[in-house]
Specification:
Elements: H1 6-23, E1 38-41, E2 48-52, E3 57-63, E4 70-75, E5 80-82, E6 87-90, E7 99-107, E8 111-120, E9 131-140
Parallel strand pairs: 1-3, 2-9
Antiparallel strand pairs: 3-7, 4-8, 5-7, 6-7, 8-9
Length: 141
Amino acid sequence: MKRVTLATLLACVMLSATLAGCAGGLSQAPGTPPIPALMVAESDAGRTIEVERGRKLTLRLEANRSAGYRWFVASSGNALEQLGEPFYAAEKSVAGAGGAEYWSFMPVRGGKQELSFEYRRPWERDKAAAKVVNYTVSVRP
């Protein structure tokens, strides 16, 4: 087994602290549990949502995919980056039961961003959305 000198160990710790500072956003000590996502409900629409850079933001939008409806992002900006595709979860395992779509975003820049979602059937783009929800997200640097 190789010996690690105190100077080498300190240099590694200082380098990792410097790199973490350069990454910006929330930082956490190694071995600690991950920072929990900020969960936002559909009922929070219209309010300003405040979140720190580096903390995942997850929106829960009620949906019933058995009726053909889906949520679509209608507008966005550059303070948030969408993380993958939305996840759908049915609330009951009964045909026709509703559920929710979960949309995740990572705040990557400080500032405000408007998020607008439309609830519609994909093949009915020429019709008005069945529902529209809007969020103002304020990302703290």
